[in-house]
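Milestone M4 deliverable, item 7.
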Amino acid sequence: MDFGIAASAFALLFVAEMGDKTQLTAMTLATRYRPLPVALGVCGAFLLLNVLAVVVGQVLFRYVPQQVVLLAAGLLFLLFAWKSWQGSAEDDDEAGPADARSAVITSFLMIFVAELGDKTQLALIALAASSGAPWSVFAGATLALWAVSLIGIFIGAALLKNVPKALIARAAAVLFAAFGLLALWRAALGAA
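Output delivered:
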């Protein structure tokens, strides 16, 4: 393990993702679900994404057009916007144990689709290809993405204690709709 390369990957990706849509997505998910299942889903998605980037990222991008990835991400964000808006009308009961599995799956899918082919994954591929130490890049990048996401999750969970759940759900719906429309717009531009 080359700790210098791992530290460089950590610094680059931590700064690149701070305040990015992924952190905002993690934050928003934590206002809808309990923090632990969201953290598990988000961290699992980044683990898989980073393995793909290091091992088969270049091949994946050769066969999956970016428009397809953007279209899938846009539709998923719009679906989650609709679910969040619908959830704002529900009562403020705490999510039950049955929702933990749903939270992990939703969090995993949201992050996986949103980040597949994103600048972070492209940067990770470039770092792994240029450094000659792909697993050092993997370690540094994964730790950075987990750290940024966990910061977002804990901020989101703290918001839930001070702001009405219905207001947070509506704000989350608007945020997800914006991300979805942006992804669809980028897909349309790429197809033109």
